[in-house]
Design a protein that fits this description.
This protein is an alpha/beta fold. Helix content is 41%, strand content 20%. The protein is globular and about 50 Å long.
């Protein structure tokens, strides 16, 4: 199986404590191929810790790169819709950190845009499979 080349947009606490370590730990499946953040010091820190990660000047450049197969959108919430749109236009797999967007209108627009999309788009809502959530879901009427 070929490695999936991941580009990470947004290198804050969630990226550093969860996403990047998991990607690095599962290096038989993924390679951290690119990173971008508005903070140059975070980019420097992450590229020093993950040598396979190329620094990109902009999120759009990372998303458009032919060297990126999947984009992890971990940036500030107000950028999610814009970066998902760009990733769809670039035909990338997308992992989108919660919240997916800030308004229902943004979600509706992305749903329409991705209706027949041939790649995976996944919202990383970690509670989805938590035992308490699953138990509560069972209690709801169908």
């Amino acid at each position: 199986m070929a490695l999936i080349r991941v580009g990470v947009v947004g290198l804050g606490e969630v990226a550093q404590s969860i996403h990047l370590p998991v990607l690095a730990d599962q290096r038989d499946r993924w390679v951290i191929a690119g990173v971008h953040d508005v903070s140059p010091s975070l980019v420097s820190l992450v590229t020093s810790e993950y040598p396979s990660a190329k620094a990109f000047e902009t999120a759009e450049a990372l998303i458009a790169s032919p060297d990126i197969d999947a984009v992890f959108v971990l940036s500030s919430d107000d950028t999610h819709s814009r970066f998902v749109r760009a990733a769809i236009a670039a035909n990338k797999h997308i992992l989108l950190e919660k919240p997916a967007c800030l308004t229902v209108c943004e979600i509706d627009e992305l749903l329409a845009l991705s209706k027949d999309y041939g790649k995976t788009i996944f919202v990383g809502y970690m509670r989805r499979y938590a035992p308490a959530y699953l138990a509560a879901r069972e209690e709801l009427p169908t």
